[in-house]
Structure formats: C-alpha cells, structure tokens
Design goal:
The complex is a heterodimer. Helix content of chain A is 0%, strand content 55%. Chain A is mainly β. Classes of the chains: A mainly beta, B mainly beta.
C-alpha cells in the first residue's frame, strides 16, 4: 500500500497571502489529522476529519481551516499568513477513525513565510 | 489538559550501548501510546503502539513499556547503532470523544561509531 502523501513538499509564501496544503491518506483510511511542528512548540494538533466531518479541533485561530473530500483526501488552508506560521505541517491517517489504531504520518509540507 | 514530557532532551551514546528513553504523561485516561522516530526534516515513522490495556510491545531491538497508573512509558533500544540516531517522540491519545494525539518534545539521540 502506498503511504500518506502530502503536496507540495516545500512552499515559500509572503505575509498576508493564503496557502492550501493537500494530504492523501493511505487507501482505506477515513481519518485524517493535521499537525503543526515548530522548534519552539513541538508538534501541535490542528484538527481531525473523519468521513468529511471535522471531529476534533486544536487551539489554533480561525485562520487555520480544513476540509475532507469523499475520497478521504484532505486539504488545510491558512489565510492571512504570519511569520509565525512557518513550520512543518504533517498529516496523519488512521483506519476507520478508531483511537486504538496507529497513526501513519506523511513526509510533511515545509512552509516558509517571509 | 494532557501534558507529555520526555527525558532526557538529548542523549549521546557510543555504538553498541543499550539505552532507555523516558516518557511521562499527566492524565492516565489514555487510549494508547505511540513511539515515533523522526529524522531531520522528515516526517514521523511509527515504531511501536501500546494500547492502554497492554504493558509492553516489542519490535526487533526495540521494547516499549507502559505503566498507565503512574503515567510512564519507556523505550528500550538494545545494541544501539549509528543508524538509530534520530529524534524519538512519544505521543498519547486521550480526550474522550474529542480525542487527539499529544506529543512530547522528543529526545534527540546520537549514537557515535
């Protein structure tokens, strides 16, 4: 089975712009979660989608949003980018949304905001 | 609020040494605990998952234990190799219906040849 894929792998944006990141889960996985990783804060949970519905949300401002499509692919959007949004954004998929199941991570999208 | 702490933050050992990485969490009401490895600039690779009802899991040279009541987990690496050099992250899933993964800050392991 192919692993979790994320596109693009690298992005450079300027402050005030918006960006969309994409994540394709492992085939058959319906749960997709997004995380932000920075040197200072470590890995922080953004949100989780299951069957096209957002089930959980972390403590991030409304500028961070996401959605999930019927094929389980997910996108996250960040509007009005700030310098502090520079980070590695990771998505993870899990089968059937069961908490006992492993989280499988993609390679991440490195976002740099200048 | 769940908090996960990993000690030490960094560890440097000679090749061949056995070592233990520690993870502690504040809320014992967890569903599972997962250990990951992250190479510089890369994503996370799952190493071991321990369900809340389990005490330990083993994979090759790796052994992870879980003591839910005391809020602790350890990752034991036997006969370390330079290729084991990476950051090791511990994460717990908790939170009831609003479950999510909460990560520690990681332990940076360097194995010297």
């Amino acid at each position: 089975k192919a692993g979790v894929t994320q596109t693009p792998r690298y992005l450079i944006k300027t402050r005030g712009q918006q960006v969309t990141l994409s994540c394709s889960p492992i085939s058959g996985h319906r749960s997709v979660s997004w995380y932000q990783q920075t040197p200072g804060q470590g890995l922080q949970f953004l949100f989780e989608y299951f069957s096209e519905t957002q089930r959980n949300k972390g403590n991030f401002p409304g500028r961070f949003s996401g959605r999930q499509f019927s094929n389980s692919r997910s996108e996250m959007n960040v509007s009005t980018l700030e310098l502090g949004d520079s980070a590695l954004y990771l998505c993870a998929s899990s089968p059937e949304g069961q908490v006992y199941y492993e989280q499988y991570f993609g390679p991440g999208t490195r976002l740099t905001v200048t | 609020k769940q908090e996960v702490t990993q000690i030490p933050a960094a560890l440097s050992v000679p090749e061949g040494e056995n070592l233990v990485l520690n993870c502690s969490f504040t809320d014992s009401a967890i569903y599972n605990l997962q250990w990951f490895r992250q190479d510089p600039g890369k994503g996370l690779t799952s190493l071991l998952l321990i369900q809340s009802s389990q005490r330990e899991q083993t994979s090759g040279r790796l052994n992870a234990s879980l003591d839910k009541s005391s809020g602790r987990s350890t990752l034991y690496i036997a006969a370390s190799q330079p290729g084991d050099s990476a950051t090791y992250l511990c994460a717990v899933i908790s939170g009831g219906s609003n479950y999510k993964l909460t990560f520690g800050k990681g332990t940076l392991l360097t194995v010297n040849p």
